[in-house]
Structures are given as structure tokens and as C-alpha cells.
Amino acid sequence: MPRTVLYNCEWLPVRLYKKTVPACPFCGTVGHRADTCPRPKPGRCTSCGVQVPAATPDGPTEHQCIPSCLLRGGGHKTGAAGCAGRFRQPVKSGSPRGSKLRTTGGGGAQTGSDSQDWPKKAPAVKSNKAEPKKTNTGHSTNVTSGTPSDPPVLVKDFPPLTPVQAQVSCWGGAVSGPSPSPSPTETTLHQQIGELRRQNQILARKVQELEAKQVGSSEPVQEAKAEDGDDGSSVTSRLTSVSRQDADTVVGPAFITRYIGRIESLEHKTEQLEASVAALPTQIMSVVHESFQDMFTAALTQALPEIVAQVSNSVLKAVQPWGIAQIKHTTQSDFLQVKRKSASRQAAEEGFSGPAPGPDRTSAP
């Protein structure tokens, strides 16, 4: 097989095409595709394969889904990218298929287990009837199955057959055998898992109903009818924690009402907080003003006597010289007035009584 091919002026890598094993998740069988399923099972989960009761048109009801592969039985979806059993196992050219016998020229027979070692062993004797020459349309060379000296050229070594892949005959063939039926252990486990899931749903609905009664919701919650099965206290105790976790994820009128109430209370608290923050600057200014006024009053009360004393001293110092000058001027003016009055009185007295005897004042030199 070439590694690259020139196509449209480009070298493209060549990869071997492998057909996948058809598996139907609608009925859980291997051998046909999902779009051609003749017997689909309604209510079957396409991922985990559990039959879920009361399926809706949109799909199965809510349940604990654990993926399971129909081909390998692993913990992944059927035909996933990492599944080792999703490809068909091709049959090597010239080798017998399955457990068919291949008769050699010596009359011996080889089983299907011996056919796996066919590339190591060449046929000893040429068969009685030579088969026509076959031409492989793939990337292998021409092979003549009847010629012992020219063994077929294989494309690559394929891995050994698996129990699931043994159902497929070849690249172009269909499924050779019927689909494998699940073992009794798997059936029992699936039934137990389904029963546990139903009980889990019942407990989740009961928890939801109790919470709805506590909240006071007027809408009734539909009660789930418990099916016949093991309803012991041990199963209930094991599922209590799981049911509470599932109940938290269920969205109902009671939960919506409770969350709406919480949101409204948070909004109310937020509004109160915003109002408090808006009034905070005014309160701070009023407190600062009152504190400043109190401090000013206290400081003024303490400093007032000193201020009064200083002002009094300053006033006295400024007024004292002026007061002394005024007193002196007043004293002198009063003395002159008194002297003048006494002189005028004396002159008047002399005019009435005549001049007094004594020396002549006019004849003085």
C-alpha cells in the first residue's frame, strides 16, 4: 500500500479504510444500525441501556446514567472513538473462515485455530482443482490461492479475533452469527440498578414534597407510585444521601418560590445598605461639625480668662497715659479758674470799699 497519493496536484497520505461493527442502541443488539432497527424498545436509554419507565417524547426520564458499550462492555458509549471493538476484523485472504475445515491434498483437515498460523505454513500439496486467479482491487498484489509458492501478500498484520468481533465475517460481509444475549448476572445487575434508580427518584420526590410543604407552596407535588420491590430500611438508608443530592438539582415551584424570596430579601438588604452608604457622608459631616463645635467651645472656655486679662492689660496700658494727661490738664485749668475768680472778687471788693492804705502803686518808678 503506498504511503501517499498524488491527487489534485497534492500529495495526500493514504490510510486503510476499516468498516465499523454496526450496533443499535435502541434495541441493544449488534448487527444493524440504529436507523434500520426493526424492533426498537421505547424507554431504553441509548447510553447506558437501562429500561427507564415513563419515557417522554424528548427521551428517557432523569436517571443515573452510566455509559456501557455494547461491543466491549466498557464504561463508554457504543462505538466511541477509543473503543477497540468498533472496527470489523477482516479475514485474511486464502484462509478458512470460522471453524470451517480446510482439506489438504493428503486428506488431512485444519480447524479455524490452525488457520491463524496460516501465514507461517504454506500448503504442502496443491489442491486437486486449481482456483481461478483473483485480483485484489485494494493496495495488495495479485494472489493465486492454489499456488503454494506464491502466498498472498497481506496488507498488515491484524490483531487476534475478539469474542465480539468474531461475529463479523469480512470487510464487505454482514454479521455471521446472532447477537449475543446478556448473561443472567448482567440482567440481574441491570434490574437492581433500575430498581435503585426508581427508589432514588421516589425519595427525591418525597424530599421535594416536604420542602414544598415547608415553603408553603400552594401547588401540589405529584407523588410517585412505588413499584413492587425491595423497600427495606437498608436500601433507604443507602439512598438517603444520594436522594438529597438529586433533590437539590430538581427545579420545581417550591424551589423557585424559595429562591425568589431569597433574592427579594437580598435586594431589600442591598437597598438598605445603599441608603446607609448614601447617608453616611451627611452623618460624618454632622458628627465632625458637632465635635469641632464642642472642641471650640471647650478651648474658648479655657482660654477666655487669659484673653480677658490680656485685653484688659492692653487697654489699661493704652488708656493710662491719656488719662494722666487729661487729669493734669483738668487740674491746671481748675487752678487757673479759681485764681481768676479770686482776683476778680478782690478787685470788686476794692471798688466798693476804696483803695486800701498803702504805698502808691502808680508812682512807682
UniProtKB/TrEMBL annotation:
InterPro entries: Znf_CCHC_sf
Annotated spans, Disordered: 80-157, 211-243, 335-365
GO terms for MF: nucleic acid binding; zinc ion binding
Bias (Polar residues) ranges: 135-148
Domain of life, per lineage: Eukaryota
Ranges of biased composition (kind: Low complexity): 233-243
Protein name: CCHC-type domain-containing protein
Organism of origin: Rhipicephalus microplus
